[in-house]
Amino acid sequence: MLVRNCDDTGRSRLHLRIGATVYGASHSGGAGAELELDRPFGDQERVGLRVGYETVSGTGTHMLSFGPRLHVKDSLYFELDAVDVSGTAFDGSGYDSWGLLGGVGIEGSAGAKVVGVELGVGAALIVLLIAALATSHGGN
User: Fold this and answer.
1) Torsions phi, psi for 70 (to 5 deg)
2) Which pTM does this prediction carry?
3) How far apart are the first and last CA of the chain?
């Protein structure tokens, strides 16, 4: 969800973005939430702060991340987050680790086009995988 506060000319003064996150991996999955607050500077840039929290299902592991984010022309962003990951390892021992995580992302209409292409390629790969499995098992 994106909430914008605009001035009298319609130019955005403040952006508040709240989002849900979901992910999966070969051994687990998880969910979380993120919050970002930013404001414009210059003609086509915004700078702000992001906070995120995710959990890993069934392990008691969680990740807290926070840091600055720079948006350029509502199509590209750069981020650098401090990350704290803590929980229980496979051997039952506890851990708590800090690190830095940097990233670049595509957003806005450019991001929507990339997601569309990724979904199309993913669907084609699934169809090919199903066809290959059906052929290798003799159609049974």
Assistant:
1) -115, 125
2) 0.68
3) 46
